[in-house]
Design goal:
It contains five helices and no strands. It has 270 residues and is an all-alpha fold. Keywords: Coiled coil.
Length: 270
Amino acid sequence: MEAFQKSTSVLWETGNYLAQLERENELIEKQLQELLGTPVLTEEETIKQYDLPYRTPSPPSSNRMKTDRESLYQQQVSYLENRIENYIDQIKSLENTIKEKDNYISQLEKRPQRAASPMREIMRDPPVIQTVFAANLKRREKELERKIVEYEKKMGEERKAMQRLQNLNRNLLGKFKEAQERESDIKGKMEKVYIREARANNLIEENQHLNIINRELHEKVEGLTSELSKMHENYNLLLSTSIDFEEKSQELYHLNQVLNQKLQTLLKNN
C-alpha cells in the first residue's frame, strides 16, 4: 500500500511537471507565433510600408522635405536594428529555456531509483512515463528548433531588407549632396544673371535719361533754328532797307549836285 502511494505520488509529480512543461511550451509557441507572425516583406513592400521613395529619380524638393525624408530613413533603420536585437535576445532566452529543460531531463534520468514496487517495475524497464515525457519534450524541442531556424531565416531576410534600406539611404544621401552642389552652382549662375540684369537695367535707365536729354536738346535746337530763321529774315529786311536807303541817298546826292550846279550858274549870271 505504501509502495502504491509512493508510485502514485511520483506519477502525480510527473504529471504536474508535464502539465507545467506543456503550459511553458504553449507560451513559447505563442511567443514564436507572435515573432513569426509578421510576414517577410520584399523590398517593394518594405518601401510601401515605410512610405519610402522608389529608386527612380524624384522631382526636386525643398531642403526641409529632403531633411525630413533623410531623418525618416534613419528612424526606420534604427527601428529594424532594434527589432533584430530584440529577436536575438528572445532566441537566446528560448535557447536557455531549452537547456534548462535538457538539464532537468538529465537529472530525472540520473535520479536514483526508489524501493521496488509494482508501479516502479513497470516504469523501470523501460521507463514508460519518462520515455513519453522525453519523447514529447524532444518533439517540442524539435518544433522549437525548427521555428527558431525559420525565425533566423526571417531575421536574415530582415537584415537584407535593412541592408537594402541602408544602401538606398546612402544613394539618396549621394543624390541629395549632388542636388545641393547643383543648387549651389545654380545659385552662383543666378547671381551672375542678377548682376547682368542689374547692369542692363542701369544701362536702360541711363539710355532713357540720355533720350530725355536728347529730346530737350532737340527742342532747344529747334528753338534756336527758329530764332536764327527770324534773324535771317530781319537781316534780309535790314539789308533790303539799307540798299534802298543807299539808292535814295545816291539819288539825293545826285540831286544835290544838280542843284548846286544850278545854284552856281544862277550866281554867275547875277
